Amino acid sequence: MLIRPTAQELEEFGEPDFVIYNAGAFPANKYTNYMTSQTSIDLSLKHKEMVILGTMYAGEMKKGVFTLMHYLMPMQGKLSLHSGCNVGAAGDVTLFFGLSGTGKTTLSADPKRPLIGDDEHVWSDNGVFNIEGGCYAKCIGLKPETEPEIWNAIRFGTVLENVDYDPVTREVDYTSQRLTENTRASYPIEYMANARIPCVGGHPKNVILLACDAFGVLPPVSRLTPEQAMYHFISGYTAKVAGTEVGVTEPQATFSACFGSAFLMLHPYK
Q1: Of 55, 148, 150, 213, which has the most beta carbons under 10 Å away?
Q2: Which residues cross the membrane (predicted)?
């Protein structure tokens, strides 16, 4: 999920910059003031620590670090992005923005365009770079015919989360929603056949905002002026789709600033 250190970096590793304590299913105290559930993710910039309680989703770790980056990067004049990213043969970089489940991972995994990353990036004066070391793909209904790159990336070393399987044959069933529709596969980015290593690119030429508009407010495809793109990016009109959040069983219209308001620690204008 995160960029793994080399053997030499491990050898010279000193004090960590940030520490994650993940207690898995151990619940938060729901009688604490302002708590509404047994799940909590608490991040302290002062102590440089994060504590995860009451959830076993591995994604809470990656999104916790992403939230931290949404604070650190703008402070350095860099733009943190909730987006997928790939690059063409001519060096033309494309960003895909959208909430979870809107197609960032699927669209960025284009066999003809090397993959820079599927979810978390930073845009600096030098171009874009991935802040993850792997992918965290939804795999409900995964088929080799429709998503061959992701299908082929799942091999020994991949962690499958909430995915059902036959305990006798050990055959995985990607169609099953017995546990949840939010099934995931976490694998190193080098498992993608077309991954661009290191995961960096130039300045984006194309910026695609995946609105997932389930209510016909927007045209199916719109080419925006720079001003329209800025407005839509800040307002972030989109829809939450079923299977990513508890309680969301059908599309719900929402506004998610910068297509990632859940991770923003600073005002969207910042």
Answers
A1: 150
A2: none
Classify residue 270: in a domain, yes or no.
no
Q: What is the pLDDT along the chain (270 residues), one digit of tens a residue?
A: 899 999 999 999 999 999 999 999 999 998 888 888 899 999 999 999 999 999 999 999 999 999 999 999 999 999 999 999 999 999 999 999 988 878 898 899 999 999 999 999 999 999 999 999 999 999 999 999 999 999 999 999 999 999 999 999 999 999 999 999 899 999 999 999 999 999 999 999 999 999 888 888 889 999 999 999 999 999 999 887 776 677 777 888 889 999 999 999 999 998
The total number of residues shown for the chain amounts to 270
Q: Are 191 and 153 in contact (CB under 8 A)?
A: yes
CA-wise closest residue to 198 among 138, 96, 139, 127? 127
- The owner of tokens 């044959």 is 169
CATH of the domain at 240: 3.90.228
Please give, one letter per residue, the 3-state secondary structure of 144-191: CCCCHHHHHHCCCCCEEECCEECCCCCCEECCCCCCCCCCEEEEEHHH
Which residues, listed in sequence order, are joined to residue 20 by a DSSP beta bridge? 50
Residue 169: domain span: 7-263
